[in-house]
Amino acid sequence: MTFEITVASVDDVQRMARWAADEGWNPGNTDAYAFHTTDPGAFLIGRLDGEPIASINVTRFGAGSASSAATSRGRRRAARVTASRSGTPA
């Protein structure tokens, strides 16, 4: 078994948005695209033997803050954190 983490493609970002909705999040119809445009390298996808199974994004909003979210296929373990430059929750 091989696990790899890569920068997500646009198709992966769509998948990530579906996973988030499946986990009970309420992503806006275009939120993923806005975040992806803001910081394209922020979306990472984990694949096991080539199959997407997990994702995370940590989008930077300038030098002072970031927002993150993690999802996985078939799991309800999503978390969202927004932090300021000091590392404390915003």
Q: How is this fold's topology laid out?
A:
Layout: E1 3-7, H1 10-22, H2 31-38, E2 43-48, E3 51-60, E4 65-72, E5 79-84
Antiparallel strand pairs: 1-2, 2-3, 3-4, 4-5
Give a written overview of the molecule.
Helix content is 23%, strand content 39%. The protein is of the alpha+beta class and 90 residues long. The protein has one domain (3-84): Aminopeptidase (3-Layer(aba) Sandwich). It has a 5-stranded antiparallel sheet with strand order 1-2-3-4-5, covered by helices on one side. Strand 4 (65-72) and strand 5 (79-84) form a beta hairpin. The longest helix is centred in the first third of the chain and has 13 residues, at 10-22. It is globular and about 40 Å long. The termini are far apart.
